[in-house]
Amino acid sequence: MESHDVIIKDAVKAYGDFKAVAGISLDIRKGEFFTLLGPSGCGKTTLLRMIAGFNTIDEGTISFGGRVINGVPAHKRGIGMVFQNYAIFPHLTVAENVAYGLKARKVPARDIAPRVRTALEMVQIDPLAGRRPNELSGGQQQRVALARAFVIEPSVLLMDEPLSNLDAKLRVQMRTTIKKLQRKLGITTVYVTHDQEEALSISDRIAVMKDGRIMQVGEPTQIYKKPENAFVAGFIGVSNFLDCQVDGQDPGNATLLIGDFRLQGVRLNRPYAGPGKIAARPEHLSMGAEGIPGRIELSTFLGDFIEYEILLENGQTLQLNEYTKDALTVKKDGTPVKVLPDADAVIVYGEGGEALT
């Protein structure tokens, strides 16, 4: 089956007065790996289930390849679905589980065995074809679920937190497997997760969600480096937020007053003067002869970098990362320091929360 784009326009899902999905519009491209990312309760799984046909849509439209599918039953949408709990049948063998969707679609019997074998080879569990699910590890069960979704050659693949039940090392291995398979097959994939690192590592584009709305859509580097609002900056990775006064009448050479320290040479996207806030990643802070005064509360050696917690004079704690290749020694707890934000890397937000950089 040919893969499709997925176009969502003004989609709403309401439960009484509560809107779990509050007017979302998205254009998901054909063959794209698109991730819905956000905290628990933000509406990402509800939206995924609307795409699947498991939840009805109260307002708006969802289209596959230009065809509105609002009233199309789930089993006629041409989707593959991978669930958080795998949802594989315990009484069937691995091969029988993978063949189930083909039989349900009335695929000729002579075609089922070779397609099952190809799917199992793709996820590297073909030697386990005769085993039952209770004889498999969590990672192997997840591969069965993937093979079952791929084997029906769906036009759209939907995945709901598929790696959340695996241990950390296996999650990393499986996300690599999923990404390679998706690229090889070119299936339009919509993936739900609350894990920021997972989303950044696996996605072509990400939609960050909050309270049933889209806060930002972009490629992983855009989401991380250019968050459009304070929520995205705080949710993706680690950000240090500092109140400041912005003197940006000349937006190409703005000055930020952070306590008594002036950070000069900040470039804004428009003139702005007034109260603001900066977001600085731990790698966008350094210690030197000038900067915001503080002292080291805790130093943690993590191999390739040293993580410092620094207590500022205003009582705020910052996280600063210093890479081992640039550090002669690990600074001791209690050491007075000055913290200098990178004027080219920090994100500046105006009083209303809009990004100024």
Q: What does this 3D model show about the protein?
A:
The chain is α+β, with helices and mostly antiparallel strands and 357 residues long. The protein has 8 helices and 19 strands. The chain has helices at residues 44-52, 94-104, 109-122, 138-151, 168-185, 196-202, 220-225, 230-235, and strands at residues 6-15, 18-28, 33-37, 59-64, 67-68, 79-82, 156-160, 188-193, 205-210, 213-218, 240-248, 254-258, 261-266, 272-280, 285-301, 305-312, 317-323, 336-341, 347-349. It has a 6-stranded mixed beta sheet, sandwiched between helices. Strands 13-12-11-14-19 form a 5-stranded antiparallel beta sheet. The protein has a 4-stranded antiparallel beta sheet with strand order 2-1-4-5, covered by helices on one side. Helix 2 crosses helix 3 and helix 2 packs parallel to helix 4 (138-151). The protein is globular, with a radius of gyration of 24 Å.
